[in-house]
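Re: that backbone. Tokens:
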């Protein structure tokens, strides 16, 4: 393995830089040349290669985003586009490609290095590192960026809780996560929210509205000093927050006709891209560094089609994944199996998805106390 190229792709995630830095340092120390590709697969198609020396990556692990830049590249679904990408990788004499990203990015890597597509062309080894604040990738306990995103959500919700307490108000706070409710569920626990709404529950709109109204009324009946209500909604719950607010407010007015409307109407905060930015937490710096260590060493050992995973939440048969000899908390899992499990997770078919939703139903009453 003489030359390894690194790219970051898809939605950026805090901690990507830590992974880039570790890849450069570990690869270099082993005698490989490590180069960067700017703006993910889009940059690959534009032949946007940059040199990455230890000097270039000094101090970047403190920075959010990714120094390489990132992009979404829909054209990569086309075989001819991937052929062009392979020509460029051949011209650049790349032996191994390290892809740091989420579901779409790792799918792109799998197709790019598909032996059937490569045919008699220059062989290409690939390794993946899970990076997405959504934590929607299968067979890894965590992806890079999730911890920082959760900390950002908790900080924002703590602030909102102060003003909600002062006014006895109800806040519906929407958090990112695409089709996965992980961030909404875990941050609801971490902020002590009264209710979490996530797509895995599969509830119809009317039930969601009812659930919020019942939660608000139950809390308003309390004789406690503060009667604030914090509801965390995953963006994956398809109902638009404005529509949700309008329906909840109307129902609350109906159920509490004597209350002054301004005292019962809800407030909405959409945290949006704030959740994806910021300096990576200590844990994300560590996670990025450790996963990159394991992934680069796999490439150096001529392994391919693997993703470095952090403590997979399910038992893995040997043909699917093995513990890294370099880090007992990290595993090397088959990339195809990761993507298949990711699909199961997102479609609610995997036992893990069912457990997540079920566990929340079990504690729902406790959240309200
Ligand atoms: O996948 C990460 C993510 O931040 C999702 O949570 C969100 O749905 C999406 O990306 C937003 O994408 P964009 O930045 O392209 O609008």
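Recovered sequence:
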């Amino acid at each position: 393995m003489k030359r390894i190229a690194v790219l970051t792709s898809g939605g950026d995630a805090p901690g990507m830089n830590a992974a880039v830095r570790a890849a450069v340092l570990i690869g270099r120390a082993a005698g490989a040349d490590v180069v960067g590709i700017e703006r993910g697969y889009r940059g690959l198609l534009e032949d946007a290669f940059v040199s990455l020396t230890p000097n270039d990556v000094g101090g970047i692990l403190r920075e959010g985003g990714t120094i390489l830049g990132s992009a979404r590249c829909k054209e990569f679904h086309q075989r001819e586009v991937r052929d062009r990408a392979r020509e460029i990788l051949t011209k650049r004499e790349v032996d191994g490609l390290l892809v740091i990203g989420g579901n779409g990015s790792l799918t792109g890597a799998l197709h790019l290095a598909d032996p059937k597509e490569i045919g008699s062309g220059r062989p290409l080894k690939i390794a993946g590192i899970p990076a997405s604040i959504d934590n929607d990738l299968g067979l890894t306990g965590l992806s890079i960026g999730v911890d920082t995103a959760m900390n950002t959500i908790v900080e924002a919700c703590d602030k909102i809780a102060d003003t909600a307490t002062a006014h006895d108000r109800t806040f519906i706070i929407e958090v990112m996560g695409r089709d996965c409710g992980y961030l909404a569920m875990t941050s609801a626990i971490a902020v002590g929210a009264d209710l979490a709404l996530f797509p895995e529950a599969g509830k119809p709109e009317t039930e969601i509205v009812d659930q919020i109204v019942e939660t608000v009324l139950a809390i308003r009946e309390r004789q406690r000093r503060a009667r604030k209500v914090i509801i965390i909604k995953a963006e994956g719950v398809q109902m638009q927050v404005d529509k949700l607010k309008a329906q909840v407010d109307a129902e609350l007015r109906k159920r509490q006709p004597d209350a002054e409307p301004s005292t019962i109407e809800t407030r909405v905060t959409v945290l949006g891209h704030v959740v994806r930015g910021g300096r990576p937490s200590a844990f994300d710096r560590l996670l990025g560094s450790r996963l990159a260590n394991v992934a680069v060493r796999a490439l150096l050992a001529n392994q391919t089609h693997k993703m470095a995973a952090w403590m997979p939440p399910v038992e893995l048969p040997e043909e699917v994944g093995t513990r890294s000899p370099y880090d007992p908390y990290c595993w090397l899992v088959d990339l195809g199996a990761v993507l298949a499990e990711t699909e199961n997770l997102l479609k609610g078919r995997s036992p893990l998805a069912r457990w997540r939703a079920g566990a929340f139903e079990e504690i729902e009453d406790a959240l309200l106390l």
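The chain has 14 helices and twelve strands. Residues 11, 102, 132-134, 176-178, 235, 276 surround 6-O-phosphono-beta-D-fructofuranose (CB under 6 Å).
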